Amino acid sequence: MDHSYPDPLALSRRVLRAVIALNLLMGALILALLIASLVNEPWVVRALGAGPSPGSSKLIMAMRLIMVLGICATPFVHLVLTRLLAIVDTVSVGNPFIVANAERLKTIAWALLTLELMHFAVGIVAKAVSSAVDEMHIDWGFSLTRWLAVLMLFVLARVFEQGARMREDLEGTI
Q1: Do residues 117 and 57 touch, judged by C-beta distance below 8 A?
Q2: What is the pTM of this model?
Q3: Which sequence spans correspond to the domains of the chain?
């Protein structure tokens, strides 16, 4: 009985390519929503469930600011995903412990740090404009796990850098 399992690296590569495309699509859709909110504000406000009220102009501006942050997040997510895809490609050729991957991990860490700060900014905007009448329902919260992941990536980048240098030194002595 022969069980054939899919190659995890090939599957990872396909999933990453699909997520890269979805990220770009999401950025384009948020941009379209932002433009629509400027062109036809009443329709977008109704579609987003924000009815007219005394503080609704403040709420609409906050929604637009969050849309801008979402658009700005798209290239950072793209950076993370494309660098991760490049790392997967080096694993598939059997040489992941290279200085380039250390740099990629460092880039991913900086991008994730930026995304976490943007996430924090979204929470601040939502909290600043929410009131008893007009509450902005944003699922925002502090996650120690995400911040630890950023820290771990910086450490892992350093480990990869040291490992790559040690490997180069070893190859130089042979």
Answers
A1: no
A2: 0.84
A3: 9-173
